[in-house]
Specification:
InterPro entries: Dolichyldiphosphatase_PAP2, PAP2/HPO, PAP2/HPO_sf. The structure is a single chain. With 224 residues, the protein is an all-alpha fold. The protein is built from 12 helices and no strands. The chain is elongated.
């Protein structure tokens, strides 16, 4: 037993958790359990959302959206290492002291996501205000979860929110005023045609467009 404890004492300091998925909560705390799952929303969006989107949709707008989130994460790591602000004092209990806390990457991710999605939705259809509002409660819940679970201070999650909001707006402007001009060229390129990458940003209602075309194709097959 003593030998095992000695070996554990040597090994544990060299172990490092993946911060994005490393979530602990107090046993028996139902709110903590709920917020722990909330804290994993960025993972669900990345894996369940954008990976599925690329596999089945291959929209240039979605690809640029995902690229912006990756750029935001890179910016977050750059700021964290530059500022080097520690996490809350009880980070040792969470095994999270090996990474910096300012700004919160979870908070930054969610506010980038909410900002970009809202701007994109309102640009395509101002009437879809309800859809544009959906990500914001999730963003604020993620902020709350990181403070409640002890991974960040209030200042750290607010810093992440501000950086995510500002960078999300800037990235949206870059994509939709500069990069969008290259969408047709990418769509018609050899790689774009090989991967079936497409741009539907010029279509006002993509859902209705695809619905109408799917029905038209079925009728054509039935009459052939």
């Amino acid at each position: 037993m003593a030998e095992y404890q000695e070996m554990a004492a040597e090994v544990l300091p060299s172990l490092k958790a993946i911060a994005l998925t490393h979530v602990r909560y107090r046993r028996g705390d139902k709110l903590g359990l709920f917020l722990a799952w909330v804290s994993l929303i960025p993972v669900f969006i990345s894996l369940g959302g954008f990976v599925s989107h690329f596999l089945f949709r291959r929209e240039l707008q979605g690809i640029c959206f995902a690229a912006g989130l990756l750029a935001s994460q890179f910016l977050n790591e750059l700021i964290k290492h530059s500022v080097a602000q520690s996490r809350p004092a009880y980070c040792e209990l969470l095994e999270a002291c090996d990474s910096h806390g300012w700004p919160s990457s979870h908070s930054q991710y969610m506010f980038f996501f909410a900002t970009y999605l809202s701007l994109l939705t309102l640009h395509r259809s101002p009437a879809r205000r309800v859809i544009a509002a959906v990500p914001w409660p999730l963003a604020f819940l993620t902020m709350l979860s990181r403070v409640y679970l002890g991974y960040h201070t209030v200042a750290q999650v607010f810093a992440g929110a501000v950086v995510g909001l500002v960078f999300g707006a800037i990235w949206y402007w870059i994509v939709n005023t500069m990069l969008v001009d290259y969408f047709p060229m990418i769509e018609e390129s050899a790689v774009g045609r090989w991967l079936y990458i497409k741009d539907t940003s010029h279509i006002p209602d993509v859902l209705k467009f695809e619905y109408d075309n799917a029905r038209a194709a079925r009728r054509k097959v039935a009459t052939d």
